[in-house]
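Q&A log
Question type: sequence-to-structure
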Amino acid sequence: MGLDTFFAEEDEAAKILRDHWVSIDDYIVNDDGSIDVIGNVKFSKTSSFLTEIPLIFNKVSGDFDCSNLNLKSLKNSPIEVGGTFDCTYNQLSTLEYLPKKAKGFIFDNTVKSIFTGGINSNFEKVLMMFRTNDPKLIGLQKIITDNAIYLPTIFKYQNYYEVWNNDKSFNEQKFNELIDDIKDGLE
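Response status: OK
Response body:
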């Protein structure tokens, strides 16, 4: 990448961050246009108009907080987060584009599916917030919420166990096999 291209991408990233009120620590624009952040990323509540993450993130050493927006997808989420990835209070159908690795992961029970687009994610801790008790708004199958204690291991192995069919529908039999193996010691 030439210097002119580098500075143009750097200026474009700074403009998007400013226009969308994104609080971000130090960052580097990579050759592919993605962003590595040394520190945290926090989207302002005044950015609740966002339906997608406006920049392509690669690695974030701290926390990545995209909660309280109107995200319909996690596309452009970082691949790796050194702290907690929080996507609560959005309009997510699935968890596709979820980071592959994070120390912690927080989402809520209005997400329709924990389908991750064919990746297995490694999280030390997972917290599923119970945003609502209204059955019309709860997205997840009861069997998933009943087994929420096992979510870190579920995210780690759900694709190995083929918990999702080719049409992205939930395979309860395969999910039960995964839960049985977790109860038998799978970590």
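Response note: The radius of gyration is 17 Å.
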